[in-house]
Amino acid sequence: NAGVTQTPKFQVLKTGQSMTLQCAQDMNHEYMSWYRQDPGMGLRLIHYSVGAGITDQGEVPNGYNVSRSTTEDFPLRLLSAAPSQTSVYFCASRRSAESYNEQFFGPGTRLTVL
Amino acid sequence: GDSVTQMEGPVTLSEEAFLTINCTYTATGYPSLFWYVQYPGEGLQLLLKATKADDKGSNKGFEATYRKETTSFHLEKGSVQVSDSAVYFCALSGAGGYNKLIFGAGTRLAVHP
Question: What average pLDDT does range B67-89 have in this prediction?
Fold first, then answer.
């Protein structure tokens, strides 16, 4: 199993550009989520999904869209990039919404917005 | 809302020293508690977990006990190694509907020979 994969690994955008961060998992997990990691702030939840066709907002959803058309994929879209979105983005998945399940993380995407 | 507070770093230790990283939480229900570790340039990986009060999670010499009375889940290791240098995150799951995973700010550990 490849686990959770993310592309690209690095990205530089100009203010106002849009892009999609890709995330895929091959573990047949129901639950997927996106986090951003900023210095001194830990990981903050952007959006999450409990199954295909079902998504919801996390702590910091503004400026980001998600969709979940398949179990495997959970892309994160930046609609109009801003410097405040410079961060490291992690995608994660777990078997189900049960609280005891381990969450598996991808390697991250480092995004810089100029 | 639910939250996690952990001690600020960096924590700097000599090899073979004893490690404690404090973590306390606020939750309305009965969350599961986790410690994740992030090595330089990598994603997070689960270190250990506990799913109910008085449970002890352990892995690779690290331990943490779920203390409901003090709402704590402190991470300990008796003898650290240089290879333990990383950022450690305390987290809880059980936050609101669908049991979102909420993280503390992270504690950087640096171990010197």
Answer: 96
The pLDDT assigned to B65 comes to 98
**Closest CA in chain A for residue B6:** A42
> Taking CB atoms and an 8 Å limit, are B51 and A31 in contact across chains?
no
Question: B80: buried, middle or exposed (CB in 10 Å: 19+, 13-18, 0-12)?
Answer: buried
Interface contact flag, B32 A99, Cβ < 8 Å: yes
Please tell me the distance from the alpha carbon of residue B113 to that of residue A71, in angstroms, as a whole number: 46
What is the bridge-based pairing of β-strands A87-94 and A31-37? antiparallel
Write out chain B residues lying below 8 Å of A23, CB-based: none
> Which residue of B32, B46, B100, B107 is the best one to mutate when testing the A interface, meaning the one whose CB has the most A CBs within 10 A?
B100
| pLDDT tops 70 at residue B97 | no
**Interchain CB contact of B28 with A (< 8 Å):** no
State CA A58 to chain mean position distance. Answer: 11
Residue B75: alpha-carbon gap to chain centroid: 5
Which residues in chain A touch residue B98, judged by CB atoms under 8 angstroms apart? 31, 48, 50, 56, 97
Quick check: B98 and A45 CB within 8 A?
no
Res A74: pLDDT: 98
**Phi (first) and psi of residue B86, to 5 degrees:** 180, 180
CA distance B72 to A91: 27
Residue B82 predicted with pLDDT over 90: yes
pLDDT number for residue A99: 73
Average pLDDT for chain B: 93
